[in-house]
Amino acid sequence: MPIDTPVALHLDGLTKVFSGKPAADHVSLTVPVGSLTGLVGPNGAGKTTSLAMTVGLLRPDSGTAAVHGIDVWADPTRAKALLGVLPDGLALPERLTGGELLTYWGLLRGMRADVVRARATELMRILELDEAEDRGLLVIEYSTGMRKKIGLATALLHAPKVLVLDEPFEAVDPVSARVLRGILRRFVAAGGSVVISSHVMSLVEDLCDRVAIIAAGQVLTAGTVADVRGASTLEDTFVRLVGEREVGEEELAWLAS
Amino acid sequence: MVGELIRLKLAIQRHTLSWKRVLGLVLGVVGALATWVAVLVAAPSARSDVLLFVLAAWLVGWLVGPILTSGAAVLRPEYFTLLPLSPRRLGFGLLASVFVGVGAAVTAGAVLALVGYAVVTAGSDVASVAAAVGTAVVGAALLLVFTVAVSRVAYALLGAAMRTRMGVEIAAIQYGLVLSSMFVGWLIVSPAVSAVPVFLRDGFGASGVSGVLGLFPSSWPLLAVDAAAAGDHASAAGLIGALALVTALVVLAAVALLTPYVGNRTVRRRTRPWGSRVLTRGRLLPGTPLGAVVGKELRTWWRDPWRSLEIRSSIWFGIFVAIYGVIAGIPQLAGLAGIAVALMAGLSGANLFGQDGTALWLLVVGQSRRALRADIRGRQIGLVVALGVPALGLSTLMMVLSGVFEFAVPIYAGILATLGVGSAVAVVMSVVGVTPGVDPHRRVNATDAGENGFAIQVALWAVLSFVAPTVAVAVPLAFAADPPPWLAVAALGVAFGNALVAAWAGGAVAARRLESHLPETFARLRYPGTTTAKGRGGGFLDYLSGHAESAALAAAAAAKGEKPAEKTKETVG
User: Fold this and answer.
1) Closest CB to B368 among A95, A110, A121
2) B451-485: per-residue pLDDT in tens?
3) Which of A3, A96, A156, B105 is deepest in the core (most CB within 10 A)?
4) Is B287's CB within 8 Å of A107's CB?
5) Where do the ABC transporter domain residues begin and end (chain A) (predicted)?
6) Which residue of chain B has the CA closest to A54?
7) Which of B210, B235, B257 is the last residue of a domain?
8) Are B164 and B296 part of one and the same domain?
9) How many angstroms from the chain centroid is the CA of residue B69?
């Protein structure tokens, strides 16, 4: 079994062209086991596209990805069993309550009913969704932050080896964000590996031990947070690599009138 | 501001499909001409009855019209939510914009037939002609405003439909009526056509229908003209006054409803949803992937207004088929109501993945052969239960009501076979014809769930073709003078086998197709129109898939200019 290889996730030349414009251009990245890797980049940089190709949601034009050495596109069933995925902005079975959603999802994954129930109950409590569950709130009635949290619960339920989370902290309140960071740190301490995408540099700097900066579909730099930022901050490094756009003195002058 | 809104509406309409506008114009002009002809050729004694009926028909047309045409809500109030306009001004402006259009113009032409009626009824006395014509002009104007405003109220209620159970029911009745008219409307065409000369000669006679029609506001201007022509000016004024009053009320209601809605998008609910205590109570369904999918599907069919609408429209479709049968003098048809409901299994279920929005991602990231099969089989079981229970119940009820039980066996055989075949066709079309709608948590209108006219047509013909074995046995059974008892047993046996084989085979095809095209199927929902979503290969399913995708993209493009009511069920049949 290649499970013991030290590489949790390997993106190998992932390329995707949407209507003539490359959304991801030979994206390659290695995520070591036990690391918490942040994927940062400006809007439209190709973060979501790259992650979608990594977890099997979007077939790449070329290139591939492997989870613990298992090719996601050649052996999807085995590779996907090791992955926990939180996509950004997609629908869920909206007319179920959070508890029903987790029950459905666990059973569909082939887990035993009693295990599903115990884990779902615990996840709902820790993510503070238990009160909504008591009221019988359906997922469609959840707030944006609650949707993120129930999505995270679906990613965690089957105890995956690698978590791939697209914007997990977006719209999540500070208290829940703390809980979430705690969960991710514990997951990594127990030998799991995490990739998150984010716009928030300070969050990545604080939470992640590794970082990859991606812009215009290409990985500009990747490595440990300390190596990438060097003597400056991560944000300064990011701006230096991605390019700066200052608002000029004469622009938008009417806004203050 | 009204001028701006009208210009905006016309600009949007310029981008809509032109054949639809031409067809609407032709039908409208024909209708207006028919109204005038009816007034002029009807026998004097029947003239009043005829015009009563025709005016009521115009009113009904405006009530049902919005779900057939796309012009009704060219301008959605929600577009203007952020403008600094008072809701009332916006409402008036939007209502006024409805009056600029083909519909209002031809209706104006039709209701002006009241003036023609006034001239031919009032006799030769100049004073009474003047009074009658004056009443007719005022009455016609009020009736036009009333009709257009009442149509907007009906449409606004339909738009609000998906937030209340009652609204879903109203929308379902409209869909059911339209569908049943397409399938069996011809049944009453011939009796109706042969009744026209008699009607033009005798009117309603002593049947009391004219008394009932007289209660409709559409009849009041006509009755007022009659009164004015007879010199009874007090009654005429009273009727016109009453019409003015209801018109004012309807206009106020339309203005109030034509304001942007910014509240909750889901059906209001006071209690926990049924069966939602999964974390604390015991399970009824097996704790397997299949049990999980069946549980999710049944809950969704029960709770999702868009899925409910499919079930409720199917039931009303069946009820209206029965009613058409009764009107046409064939009450035996009433028992077919259940088969009509069962037929909708294949059509309503033709886009199950699209109805769930992008939720297919769960199946993609949780991919395993067992999960995929469970998903397909579970959706089939959910569909059969969701539409099978009302189908069997409705046919049984109709047979009890009509007292005709001699066709019970062929009818039950038909329901069984149609459900089984429908569940097969539905899942195959759901995979190859997957069509994106508005994502579930952003849906507002009845048509937002994403419908594919091409897929629905293919589904209809496929269901009708694959029930052939059952039809071959059930029809002789139904019409044999003295069928042997074994034929009844054979019919049920064939139907059961037909249903089982079709459901099994269709499910297997769908599951295999989904497994080989899983990321592509998801891409059709997530990235519609990109090459990623294109199917691969050159088989029959790829051919269907390609056509279904083109149909979906064409519908989506048409919907961009004129969002609602474009992708309605008009493409069926």
Assistant:
1) A110
2) 778 888 899 999 999 999 999 999 989 888 888 88
3) A96
4) yes
5) 9-241
6) B365
7) B257
8) no
9) 11
The minimum CA-CA distance between B442 and chain A, rounded to whole Å, is: 9
Structural domains of chain B, count: 2
Residue B228 half-sphere exposure toward CB, CA atoms < 13 A: 32
pLDDT per residue as tens digits for the range B482-536:
888 899 999 999 999 999 999 999 999 999 999 999 999 999 888 887 755 555 5
Give DSSP secondary structure letters for A185-201: HHHHHTT-EEEEEES-H
Residues B226 and B180 in one domain: yes
Q: Is A96 on the interface with B (CB under 8 A)?
A: yes
Q: Which residues of B touch A81 (CB under 8 A)?
A: 368
Can you tell me the ipTM of this complex? 0.92
Q: Does residue B274 lie in a domain region?
A: no
Whether B479 is in a domain gets the answer yes
Q: Do B276 and A124 touch (CB under 8 A)?
A: no
Last residue of a domain, one of B257, B282, B304: B257
B223 and B347 share one domain: no
Both tokens of B147, joined, read 């009709």
Does B52 lie in the same domain as B119?
A: yes
Q: Which domain holds residue B343?
A: 291-571
What is the dihedral sign for C-alpha A20, A24, A27, A33?
Answer: negative
A53: nearest Cα among A93, A21, A83, A89: A83
Q: Which A residues, 114 through 153, put their C-beta within 8 Å of a C-beta on chain B?
A: 116-117, 120-121, 124, 133, 135-136, 138, 140-141
Q: Are residues B442 and B521 in contact, defined by beta-carbon separation less than 8 angstroms?
A: no
Q: Which of A141, A139, A144, A51 is nearest to A102 (CA)?
A: A139
- Kindly list the residues from chain B whose CB atom is less than 8 angstroms away from the CB atom of residue A136: 271-273, 276
**Domain annotation covers residue B482:** yes
Taking CA–CA distances from A147, the nearest residue in chain B reads B441
Residue tagged 């018109």 (tokens) = B247
